[in-house]
From TrEMBL:
SUPFAM superfamilies: Thioredoxin-like (SSF52833). It holds the Pfam family Thioredoxin_6. Residues 563-572 have a biased composition (Low complexity). Residues 528-580 are annotated as: Disordered. It comes from Scophthalmus maximus (Turbot). Residues 9-87 form the TXNDC16 third thioredoxin-like domain. This is TXNDC16 third thioredoxin-like domain-containing protein. It comes from the Eukaryota. Residues 539-562 have a biased composition (Acidic residues).
Length: 580
């Protein structure tokens, strides 16, 4: 028989500090009370274990009544004589502070970033999230938490409600909940009072998240099946899904762009100028949103309702406006279009040269035209805009360029981007199946790991790659020693289409295997229920407890604070206690 600490902690406690208290048979009840009290105070900080001294495997000297070990030194035990419980709490407080100071010293002396090595070795993202946020609680005062009974009343209190649906046990949900609260507090600080922020825990209010709340009352939205999800709710309108990045800045920008009327009816040239050149709120200063104008002969034109439906779908993403009558005719003449017409003003175009959209017969068709017109012919790919490009379902033609060391390098990179833009222009119709874009590895360092994962190694820069083909997961690399010029790139794409170009790699499956073997808790619970009766006589329970105590492996009893939640924590005073 070996010491319980002679082997590393088992999953999922590899990165959790452990505290051992040693108990004697004569004082086991007092020891248990003390362990319970300490376990309560160590919740979220350390794991507490109560060890029986009568075991022959326990050879701890009598002068010590406690021990502990830290995750970075999982096999190194430190013994101590514990006089009061505050000593343990002070121990871990000092350890955490010293760890922070060491990290700061390393950053100052060596300029190294903290790589969170402890967190990187945890088994899954949920454990990482729990470990990082242990002992911390989110302040929910800035948001409303409705129930199934009052959800309709809550939504009626505001013309604009932003609702987050999350699960407490989902790491991404809890991380985004923090960002959601940050946005709510920011809106409050900037005195934006015409929006209501609510959050619903779908683990608790399952009927609400299933769209069944309110009994006979109308259904507010379709069942929530993905977490976290954000909906924008307005009275008498269908719910709008937020499709942006799960971060505080993108969500805040989306909310601020949701306030203006969609579409806004512009009746003077001054209003049009303000619409095209100004932002709707000071909080958006410095941001250049995309804009779309609809030009119609009259407000009763048949195309106005179609444009309005499309405009409502674009709220939070694009500013939309409508011109009618004489003002619309004036704009149509200036931009050589026939009424009705739709003009798109992406941020990378000047206001004097908008994109003229083709004719449309439905809101869906118009949305397709708008989204296509707002795409930059050679956009810079970033972490934030990647989802919008992937949602197009087209192959990505990616140009990777490195960080420039001087002005010459900047000009070379710019020349490469311009050359790829010519590829798009000269390729005409055949390039519609691709989204040509570029990644600046200085602006987006994550692109280096992406490029390395595509090809298995880091190629020389610049590198041109074709990936995310709808037909499969093939990855093609433009020949590294061939100059990136329009004729050669078009010939390379033609060889790929003809099937004569060899692949450079294959995209991996969208699966992330667990670091540990899957443990089916429900199956174990079902097995236990079938093998033992629901209720046992008191005398049988006592016999089972006695047998378990005699056969405990290593005579180790793990006292979990959660199991003692019904017991009142004992007083910290340890008088008349022989061990502790």
């Amino acid at each position: 028989m070996t010491h319980p600490w002679s082997r590393p902690p088992q999953f999922p406690y590899q990165q959790t500090p452990q505290v051992f208290l040693f108990s004697r048979p004569a004082t086991k009840h007092l020891d248990l009370d003390t362990a319970t009290t300490l376990a309560w105070r160590l919740r979220g900080i350390a794991l507490l274990l109560l060890v029986h001294r009568q075991s022959p495997a326990v050879k701890t000297p009598d002068e010590y009544n406690a021990a502990y070990r830290l995750p970075e030194k999982s096999l190194e035990m430190k013994y101590m004589t514990l006089h009061n419980l505050d000593e343990v709490l002070e121990l871990f407080t000092i350890h955490e502070k010293s760890g922070e100071e060491e990290v700061e010293d390393e950053e100052e002396d060596e300029g190294l970033e903290d790589d969170d090595s402890d967190f990187g070795t945890l088994d899954d993202d949920i454990v990482v999230s729990v470990y990082k946020n242990r002992g911390s609680f989110l302040d929910m005062d800035s948001i409303t938490q409705p129930t199934s009974d009052n959800i309709h009343t809550t939504l009626a209190q505001s013309n604009l409600t932003v609702a987050l649906f999350y699960l407490k046990w989902d790491a991404v949900s809890m991380a985004f909940l923090s960002s959601f609260i940050e946005v709510a507090e920011r809106l409050t600080d900037s005195e934006v009072d015409n929006v209501q922020m609510i959050a619903v825990d779908c683990g608790e209010w399952t009927d609400l998240c299933a769209g069944q709340a309110g009994g006979s009352l109308p259904v507010l939205f379709q069942p929530i099946t993905a977490f976290p999800s954000v909906l924008v709710l307005r009275p008498q309108e269908s719910a709008q899904h937020y499709k942006g990045m799960l971060g505080s800045e993108p969500l805040h920008r989306f909310i601020m762009l949701s306030f203006p009327a969609s579409p806004a009816l512009l009746s003077t040239q001054e209003e049009v100028t303000s619409f095209l050149q100004e932002v709707p709120h000071p909080e958006l200063a410095g941001y250049m949103p995309s804009r779309v104008l609809g030009l119609f002969n009259t407000q009763t034109h048949a195309g106005v309702p179609v444009f309005t439906e499309a405009a409502k779908s674009l709220r939070g993403e694009v500013l939309t406006g409508v011109l009618t009558d004489g003002l619309a005719e004036k704009w149509a003449i200036e931009h050589t279009v026939d009424l009705p017409a739709v003009l798109a003003f992406p941020p990378w175009r000047t206001h004097s040269h908008p994109s003229k959209l083709p004719a449309f017969s439905s809101a869906e068709e118009l949305l397709t035209h708008i989204n296509t017109a707002l795409i930059h012919p050679m956009p810079e790919l970033t972490v934030e805009n990647l989802p919008s490009f992937l949602s197009l379902g087209k192959a990505l033609l990616l140009l990777f360029v490195g960080e420039e060391e001087d002005e010459i390098g900047r000009r070379q990179n710019q020349a490469l981007v311009e050359e790829m833009r010519r590829v798009v222009e000269l390729g005409e119709g055949r390039m519609e199946r691709y989204v040509a874009c570029w990644i600046h590895l200085g602006h987006t360092p994550a692109g280096m790991s992406v490029l390395g994962s595509y090809l298995g190694t880091m190629p020389p820069l610049p590198a041109l790659v074709l990936t995310h083909l709808p037909s499969g997961g093939e990855i093609y690399q433009y020949p590294p020693n061939t100059p990136i010029v329009t004729p050669f790139v078009l010939q390379w794409l033609q060889r790929i289409e003809d099937g004569t170009e060899s692949t450079a790699g294959i995209l991996g499956e969208d699966s992330w295997p667990s670091a540990v073997e899957f443990y089916d808790f429900l199956k174990v619970m079902d097995t236990q229920e079938r093998s033992s009766p629901q209720q046992q006589a008191p005398d049988l329970e006592e016999e089972d407890v006695d047998m378990e105590e005699e056969n405990l492996e290593n005579d180790l009893l793990v006292e979990d604070a959660a199991d003692s939640s019904n017991a009142s924590p004992a007083d910290d005073t340890l008088t008349d206690h022989s061990e502790l």
